[in-house]
Design a protein that fits this description.
It contains 4 helices and 15 strands. With 257 residues, it is mainly beta.
Length: 257
């Protein structure tokens, strides 16, 4: 219920959307029917597009994050709920990061009327999310945003095609909108339930693997993963693999200068 000192829901959504669009940079949207086109001798390999904003699915999801964690004034961080993290790690000089269900980071997310509740996560960097600051996270949601314009997502088309996924990226440091090129990149993504892990290659370095994870309440549902790359990364190639090692799709992202 709204009160005289609490902005209504529409105002909160608009304010948070402006914040997200201002702060989150270089999110890569993997919009994939084309990813099913095989190349001779292996899966598809295409350059992902780059955007100086957030992927559409992430925008729709994050627009609803109007209530700050722990019920303080909008955007104030008391602490990061790291105990709920699906994955975590660290990057040199930028400290810890966590991949946390969006509903935990932002309990007022407003998806209670959706069926199913959207499967969504936030990539939370310690360096960009200090106590007392505004939330500055990246996020992805599995499925297509509802045509009605609400916060719900339709998973049917994505569940019918294991090659459908959404991946975003952001700097780990606190100056995501200021062009600070000295901080590492954090990647975060959502995948089909059959995608068990990623094989990632960064520039000329040896490949590494990242296991995917599901939300605790949906162990057989969409899966998620996160990883980091150095600040001077130029090319990232990643393959989506099933549990038996079958490559479903391969993508190459070029960061540019």
């Amino acid at each position: 219920m709204n009160t005289a000192d609490q902005p209504d829901v529409d105002e909160r959504l608009a304010a948070h959307l402006r914040l997200v669009l201002h702060r989150v940079a270089d999110t890569i949207a993997a919009d994939l029917p084309r990813s099913t086109e095989p190349l001779p001798g292996g899966p598809a390999r295409r350059r992902s597009g780059r955007r100086i904003a957030v992927a559409i699915a992430a925008v729709v999801a994050l627009a609803g994050l109007g209530v700050a964690w722990n019920q303080l004034d909008e955007g104030e961080i008391v602490r990061i709920p790291t105990e709920a993290a699906l994955m975590s790690g660290s990057a040199e000089d930028e400290g810890q990061w966590w991949l946390i269900p969006s509903a935990v980071v932002h309990p007022g997310i407003g998806w209670s009327t959706c069926d199913p509740t959207p499967a969504a996560v936030d990539f939370v960097s310690q360096a960009s999310n200090r106590p007392g600051q505004e939330w500055n996270t990246g996020g992805v949601v599995y499925g297509e945003p509802s045509a009605s314009g609400d916060l719900c997502h339709d998973e049917a088309a994505w569940l019918a095609n294991p090659a459908r996924f959404d991946m975003g990226s952001t700097r780990l440091g606190p100056s995501d909108d200021g062009g600070d090129e000295r901080t590492a990149w954090g990647y975060f993504a959502t995948f089909h339930p059959t995608i068990a892990r990623l094989e990632v290659s960064v520039d000329d370095q040896p490949a590494f693997t990242v296991d995917t994870v599901a939300l605790p309440e949906r162990p057989d549902g969409p899966r998620f993963a996160a990883f980091t790359t150095p600040s001077d990364t130029r090319v990232v190639t990643y393959r989506l693999l099933t549990a038996d090692g079958t490559a479903v799709v391969e993508r190459t992202s070029e960061r540019g200068g």
